[in-house]
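Action item from last meeting closed. Structure (471 res):
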C-alpha cells in the first residue's frame, strides 16, 4: 500500500440473472485489486431492478463465487431494489429542473421512428417529440426521459482505453424511468455511483457506449463524474466470445472441476493484465503490482492449458491450508472420508506432482480410502502371475515386522526383499502396485505403500496372493 496512490473507491455491480461467470469474476478481481492496491474500498452492489430476471439463487451464487475466490467487499451487498425511493427522488429533481421530461409516445410511434431510421440507414434515436409537450394525452402512464444536451460532446479519458469522445448529436433522450416507476440501468447506476462516492468505475467494455450518456446524467445531477476503466472481453480459445460452448464458465463450476482459488485468481489477473512476461503472482504481489492502466486493450483468449499449469503450480506451492480445505471439499463430494485413510496433508505431498486438478487427485486416490471390488482384469492377468507369489510373500513378511512405516523404510524393505531373492526391483514393484491399487497406476511404490498403510497393505497382498493361487 503506497500512500502516494490515491485510494480507489470502486464497486462491482453484477445483475443477478445467472451465475458469477468468468468475465464477471475477472471484473470483480480487477476492482478488488485496484482498491487493495491503493488502500481504497471495494463495494458490492447487486443490480436487481430487473425483477423478472433477477433471482435470489443468482445473488447467492455471486456472493458464494466471490467468497470462494477470496474477493471480500468492504461494503455491501447493497441492493438497488432497496433504493427505489432514492431513484424517484432524483428523477423528481431532474423533472423539476427541466432536465428530464415525461414521454407519452406510444409503442407504435416509437416502432415507426425506428423503422424509418433503419430504412434511411440511420441509427434509431428518439426525436424529442415529448420534450415540450403542451397537452399530454390523458390516461397514458408516461415514461421519464433524460433531456440529453443537444450541443457539444462528451470527452473522457478512459484509464484502459484512453481518450474517448462522443458528440451529443449521437446521443438521444434516454428513458431513465419506466412507466411502472422502476429506474433504468443507466440512471440507477449513476445515482448509486454518486451516492456511494465511487471514484473509479471498472466494468466490461460492453458498457462503453453507455458511459457518455451516464456522464451527461452525472452533470445534470450536479455531480462530478468518476473515472472509468473499461476492460475488454474474454474470448474462448477459438476466438469467439466465451460461452457455455467452451466448457464451464461459472466460477463455482471451476471449483467443481478441481481448481484452487489462488490459481484461478492468478489466472484471471493475467487474462487481460500483464507485468512483463511473468505468469505467477501471489495475491500480495498482484496487489503490489496491479495498475488499471496496465490492463490490455485487446480481448484476451481463454487458455485452459495455462490454467491447468497454474493450478498444478498452486497445488504444490500454494498456502497449504487453502489447498487442504479444497481437497477436503472434493473428498466429501467423492463420498470419501479422510479418517479411512492417510492424512490429506500426506496425500497431497505425494499426489500434487502427478495431477493438474483436485478432481484428478481424488479420483486417483480412491484406493487409499476404500477397498476396491476387484482387480482390473488386464493388470491382474499381466502382473499377478505365479512368479510374483514368492516376492510378494517375502515382502509381506518383511512389511509385517517393519518398525517404521515411512517412505524411506518402505523403500529399504522392498530393496532388501529384491536383493534377498536376487531379482530386480521391478519384479516386485508391478505386482505390488496391482495388489495395492487394483490396477497398474500409482505414485512411486514406496509412497503408495505408505499411503495405503500397513494393515490395508498386508490385507491387499494377501488378497493378491489368493488371486494368484486361484488362477
Ligand atoms: N449491472 C451491470 C452489469 O452487470 C453493471 C455495469 C456497471 O458496472 O456499470 O453489466
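Sequence:
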Amino acid at each position: 500500500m503506497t500512500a502516494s496512490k490515491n485510494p480507489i473507491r470502486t464497486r462491482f455491480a453484477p445483475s443477478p440473472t445467472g451465475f458469477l461467470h468468468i468475465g464477471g469474476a475477472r471484473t470483480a478481481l480487477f476492482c478488488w485489486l485496484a482498491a487493495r492496491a491503493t488502500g481504497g474500498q471495494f463495494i458490492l452492489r447487486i443490480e436487481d431492478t430487473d425483477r423478472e430476471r433477477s433471482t435470489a439463487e443468482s445473488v447467492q451464487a455471486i456472493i458464494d463465487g466471490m467468497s470462494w475466490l477470496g474477493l471480500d467487499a468492504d461494503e455491501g451487498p447493497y441492493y438497488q431494489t432497496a433504493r427505489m425511493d432514492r431513484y424517484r427522488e432524483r428523477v423528481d429533481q431532474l423533472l423539476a429542473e427541466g432536465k428530464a421530461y415525461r414521454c407519452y409516445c406510444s409503442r407504435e410511434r416509437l416502432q415507426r421512428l425506428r423503422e424509418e431510421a433503419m430504412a434511411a440507414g440511420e441509427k434509431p434515436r428518439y426525436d424529442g417529440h415529448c420534450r415540450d409537450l403542451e397537452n399530454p394525452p390523458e390516461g397514458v402512464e408516461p415514461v421519464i426521459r433524460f433531456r440529453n444536451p443537444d450541443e457539444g460532446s462528451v470527452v473522457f479519458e478512459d484509464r484502459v482505453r484512453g481518450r474517448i469522445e462522443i458528440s451529443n448529436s449521437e446521443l438521444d433522450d434516454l428513458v431513465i424511468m419506466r412507466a411502472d416507476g422502476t429506474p433504468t440501468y443507466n440512471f440507477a447506476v449513476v445515482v448509486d455511483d454518486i451516492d456511494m462516492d465511487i471514484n473509479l468505475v471498472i466494468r466490461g467494455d460492453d458498457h462503453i457506449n453507455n458511459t457518455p450518456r451516464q456522464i451527461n446524467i452525472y452533470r445534470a445531477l450536479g455531480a462530478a463524474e468518476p473515472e472509468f476503466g473499461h476492460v475488454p472481453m474474454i474470448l474462448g480459445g477459438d476466438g469467439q466470445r466465451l460461452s457455455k460452448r467452451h466448457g464451464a464458465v461459472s466460477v463455482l463450476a471451476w471449483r467443481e472441476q478441481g481448481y484452487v482459488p489462488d490459481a484461478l485468481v492468478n489466472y484471471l489477473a493475467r487474462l487481460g493484465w500483464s507485468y512483463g512476461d511473468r505468469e505467477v503472482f501471489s495475491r500480495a504481489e498482484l496487489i503490489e503490482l496491479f495498475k488499471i492502466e496496465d490492463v490490455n486493450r485487446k480481448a484476451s483468449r481463454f487458455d485452459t492449458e495455462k490454467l491447468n499449469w497454474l493450478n498444478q503450480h498452486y497445488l504444490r506451492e500454494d498456502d497449504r491450508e487453502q489447498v487442504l480445505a479444497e481437497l477436503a471439499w472434493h473428498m466429501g463430494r467423492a463420498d470419501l472420508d479422510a479418517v479411512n485413510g492417510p492424512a490429506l496433508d500426506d496425500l497431497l505431498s505425494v499426489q500434487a506432482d502427478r495431477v493438474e486438478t483436485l478432481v484428478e487427485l481424488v479420483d486417483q486416490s480412491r484406493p487409499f480410502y476404500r477397498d476396491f471390488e476387484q482387480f482390473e482384469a488386464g493388470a491382474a492377468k499381466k502382473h499377478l502371475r505365479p512368479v510374483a507369489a514368492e516376492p510378494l510373500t517375502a515382502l509381506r513378511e518383511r512389511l509385517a515386522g517393519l518398525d517404521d512405516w515411512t517412505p524411506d523404510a518402505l523403500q529399504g524393505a522392498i530393496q532388501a526383499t529384491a536383493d534377498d531373492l536376487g531379482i530386480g526391483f521391478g519384479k516386485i514393484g508391478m505386482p505390488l502396485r496391482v495388489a495395492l491399487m487394483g490396477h497398474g497406476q500409482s505414485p512411486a511404490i514406496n509412497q503408495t505403500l505408505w499411503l495405503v498403510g500397513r494393515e490395508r497393505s498386508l490385507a491387499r497382498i494377501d488378497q493378491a496372493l489368493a488371486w494368484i493361487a486361484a488362477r
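Note appended to the action item: The chain has a mean pLDDT of 95.
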